[in-house]
Amino acid sequence: MRWLVLLFFITVPSVVSAQAIEALPPGDDVIEAIQKGSPAPFSGQLFDTMTAIRWGNYLQQYRLRLDVDVKAAEKTCKAELDYGLKVRTIELDRNKKVETDLQLRLLSSEKRAVVLQDRLSNPSFFRSMEFGVTMGVVSSVVVVVVSALVLK
C-alpha cells in the first residue's frame, strides 16, 4: 500500500507539471457589454458569458490546485528526505560495524605478526642451530658407545 501511495505522489506532480499554464498578463480587467452586430470597442478576444464563466472557473481551479500540488510536493520531498536520512543512518551503522570488525582483524593480525616475528628473531633453545648440532654430536657419540658396548 505504501508503494502505491509513493508511486501516486511521484507520478501525479510530474503529470500536473507537464500541463503548463501560461502566465496571465498583468493589468485591470476590461469588461464591456456589447450587443450582437455592434462593433467591438477594443481589439483582442471576445468571450461569450458561458466561456468567460468557464475560464474564471479554470483559473479558480488552478489556484486551488496549486495549493494542493505544493502540499503534495512538500510531502513528497519530506518523505524522500526522511527516507534518505534513514538510509544514511543505516549505512553509517553498517559502516561502523564493518570498520570495527576490520580494526579488530587488523589488530589481531598485527599481534600475530609480532609474535611470529619474535619467534623468528629469537628462536627457542630447542630450535636453535647450536642445540641441533650438539644433539647430533651427542647422539652420534651415544650410538657409537652403545654399539661398542654391545659388540664387546
What can you tell me about this protein's structure?
With 152 residues, the chain is mainly alpha-helical. It is 74% helix and 0% strand. The protein has 3 helices and no strands. The N and C termini lie far apart (102 Å).
Count of strand segments: 0
How would you state the average pLDDT, rounded? 83
Q: How would a textbook summarize the main sheet?
A: none
Low-confidence stretches: none
Beta-strand percentage?
under 5%
- Order of helical and strand elements: HHH
**How far from one another are the termini?**
102 Å
Key descriptive features of the protein:
152 residues, mainly alpha
Q: Which helices and strands occur, and which strands form pairs?
A:
Elements: H1 2-18, H2 49-121, H3 129-151
Helix pairs in contact: 1-2
Brief synopsis:
The mean pLDDT is 83. It contains three helices and no strands. Helix content is 74%, strand content 0%.
